[in-house]
Amino acid sequence: MSAKNIAVHLPDGSVREVPAGTTPLDIANSISPRLAAASVVARLTPVGVAVAGADTEGETGEASMYGAEDASAPRLVDLATPLTADIRLELLTEKDPEALKVVRHSAAHVMATAVLELFPETKLGHGPATDAGFFYDFYREKAFTEDDLAAIQAKMVEVVARDQKFVHEFSPREKSLETFERDGDFMKTHFVSKFTEPGSDVSFYRNGSFVDFCRGPHVPSTGRVKAFKVMSIAGAYWLGDEKNPQLQRIYGTAFFTQKDLDAHFARLEEAAKRDHRVLGKQLDLFSIQELAGAGLIFWHPKGAMIRRLMEDWMREECVRRGYLLVYTPHVMRRELWKVSGHDGVYSKDMFPPMKLDDSEYRLKPMNCPGHILIYKNAPKSYRDLPQRYAEFGNVYRYERSGTMHGLLRVRGFTQDDAHIFCTPEQIEGEVIACLDFAEAVLKTFGFSEYRVELSTRDPNKAGDFFGTPEDWSNAEGALKKVLTDRGLSFKTFPGEAAFYGPKIDVKLVDVLGRLWQLSTVQFDFNLPARFELEYVGEDGERHQPVMVHRALFGSVERFFGVLIEQYAGAFPLWLAPVQVGLVPISERHAAYAAKVEKALKEAGLRVEVDARNEKMNAKIRDLANQKIPYILVFGDKEEGAEAVSVRTRGKGDQGSMPLVEFIAKCKEMVAGQAVEL
Q1: Distance in angstroms (rounded) separating the CA atoms of residues 585 and 611
Q2: d(CA 166, CA 169)
């Protein structure tokens, strides 16, 4: 091959020999002008490195926006980037999630351009893409208003219409710092100082007269940011420190098409209708009392009924699957948490120690040390293993005030926790059984879709994880084998493991397509060693067991919040706090109402009678607003036939039915835990 030529390997297996300096856009045009027009960004992978479409999740952090890249890893680049060495090239189009994040990051630059044109005194922070859109942090003494947001939206339309090219430029670090310091751009000064090396060139992107410190990549021009919306504004302290200046964070979102943007806002509107905080108040399910404190849940009778049904189902399943039910204290001596490692690694997320007579105590953030003490209380033989301990244990974690959100993120919650102590030979079977259990939970409560993630140790941050590299390799290998053998597709997330071992997370997908982290299965070889757990093996020698942590609801509170939003408060019959509402047409039908109520309750159904001296339609409306599955209306005709007129939630009047037939139907649905009416 000529010294001036390079080899470009394409996804179809073909290889193109092109002059050094050829761009991904040149390659795209040589394949098809339509492909060139559809391409958003390019992914480059060094030859010899496996191609992995490394989807990133969540907000793009500062380090990924500005910091150095791993030269051996796949990376995204602009279509105008010159290719200088043999490379694997993928052209990403609107079909690729990573391409959408690039569009959103470019939209953040468009928004910053608009803000500076309208409010030139503003100082810039950073503007990453997120899973839902993008934001940009600004410092400005005067607060932005709703009218300002409308003006920013209009100015963004102008910037897009100019179709300015995004141009990648470089400037010496010292010159860049001097310019930012002179202009009072304290945030950009911080970013350049933190994420670049002395003597290096600093990466910038220019569109028109707007220049921003950024690693990129970006779409070819502002004209490619077609469907966007400035949404809201919130406060954020610089570097998250309340002693620092308060920034103004403007949120927006962007999609490839207006159709996708409209669909997004339709989903948001539907999500607002399903908001568990609103429905929780409307349906009188739970509350958070200011006098008691933030993040602490009060379960009202109807919510408590659903909780009881959830917990009863889970307890019965645990017993059926060989678990032993246990209970452990809410508060334990600090020494226990030091042995487990939580007092060091997890201390900032725990409530402060309490000084009592004999020692310091801490509220438990986890149930595992308590279960370990139960295991250790008596000698164990290999014949006793596995030992499976399950508990609905109340735990307490110090969530920061800005992070709490209804039932979904709280300070006090109940974990459906279990810990399995077993031999190394039993570990795979136990993990498989936990995954089977997790699937049963999702199916029973009406979720049909889920995603699986494997969280592993980051070898570059070994100090954050307990145990030897060999132990971690064995543990991660065991979990990978289970997932592979079961044919489950999964993503791997290095660095996201618990400090004591790798884990499998099962994230359910709700009716709106949202992911929820609930079920988790975790491998632990560290805590058994820290607590010196033992069992006597078949060889008569003492051995150390391994341990599996698993939670399937995750927390009762969070799972309940997700259930509320999944069903928009219209729970399946078996879970509904009130299953049947009774509406006697007039006062003279009170005796028949009492007879119907008695028959339903004897069948195990939960009933509410509206015996008020109100019009029938008003009573039906009030019961329907409670989202009760069935409303039974009866007058002279129904009483004479020992029947009821059935109104089904979401379907309206279903006509008359013999009472015994209605009861039989309900009992069958409850027994089968039917999701649909």
Answers
A1: 9
A2: 10
Q: What pLDDT digit, counting tens, does each position of 392-414 carry?
A: 999 999 998 878 899 999 999 99
Specify the amino acid at residue 180.
F
Cα atoms in the 13 Å half-sphere on the side-chain side of 553 = 31
403 CB-contact burial (10 Å; exposed 0-12 / middle 13-18 / buried 19+): exposed
Pairing status of strand 491-494 against strand 449-456: parallel
What CA–CA distance (Å, rounded) separates 622 from 8? 68
Average pLDDT value for the chain: 91
Task: Report the alpha-carbon angle 660-661-666, nearest 5.
Answer: 100
Round to whole Å and give the CA distance between 394 and 364.
8
Contact at 8 Å (CB) between 229 and 153? yes
Q: How far apart are CA 278 and CA 569, in angstroms?
A: 10
Residue 407: which of 521, 516, 511 has the closest Cα? 516
Give the 3-state secondary structure of residue 262.
helix
CA distances (Å), origin 595, targets 39, 128, 605: 70, 64, 14
Q: Copy the structure tokens of residue 204.
A: 């910038």
Rg, C-alpha atoms of the chain: 30
Tens of pLDDT, residue by residue over 64-112, are 444 445 556 789 999 999 999 999 999 999 988 899 999 999 999 999 9
Residue 314 has pLDDT above 90, yes or no: yes
CA dihedral 370, 372, 374, 377 (to 10 degrees): -130
Instruction: Name, in order, each residue with C-beta under 8 angstroms of 423's C-beta and a sequence gap of 6 or more.
Output: 382, 385, 386, 535, 537, 543, 545, 546
Q: What angle do CA 557, 241, 184 make, to 5 degrees?
A: 140
Mean of pLDDT values over 456-471:
78
Residue 176 has pLDDT above 70, yes or no: yes
Q: Does pTM top 0.85 for this prediction?
A: no
**DSSP state string for 459-480:** GGGGGGS-S-HHHHHHHHHHHH
Active-site residue list: 368, 397, 415, 417, 419, 503, 549
Asked if residues 374 and 401 have their Cβ atoms less than 8 Å apart, the reply is no
Rounded to an integer, what distance in angstroms lies between the CA atom of residue 528 and that of residue 354?
A: 27
Neighbours of 281 (CB within 10 A): 13
Q: What is the pLDDT of residues 223-265, one digit of tens each?
A: 999 999 999 999 888 887 778 889 999 999 999 999 999 999 9
Q: Which residues contact 95 (CB under 8 A, 6 or more apart)?
A: none
The percent of residues in the chain predicted with pLDDT above 70, rounded, is 95
Q: Is the bond leading into 658 cis (omega within 30 degrees of zero)?
A: no
Which of 172-179's residues contact partners 24+ apart within 8 Å by CB, and which partners? Answer: 172/201, 172/202, 173/197, 173/198, 173/199, 173/200, 173/201, 173/202, 174/198, 176/202, 176/204, 176/213
Amino acid letter, residue 218: H
Upper half-sphere CA count for residue 605 (Cβ side, 13 Å): 27
Contact 651, 638 (CB under 8 A): no
Alpha helices (H) in 204-275, listed in sequence order:
258-273
Which tokens in the block code for residue 653? 């009047």
How far is it, in rounded angstroms, from Cα 566 to Cα 478? 34
CB-based contact 55:490 (threshold 8 Å): no
Question: Are the C-beta atoms of residues 206 and 171 closer than 8 Å to each other?
Answer: no
Can you tell me whether residue 531 is helix, strand or coil?
coil
Residue reference for tokens 């029973």: 444
Q: Is 134 exposed, middle or buried (0-12, 13-18, 19+ CB in 10 A)?
A: buried
What would the pLDDT profile of 149-174 be if each residue is shown by its tens digit? 999 999 999 999 999 999 999 999 99
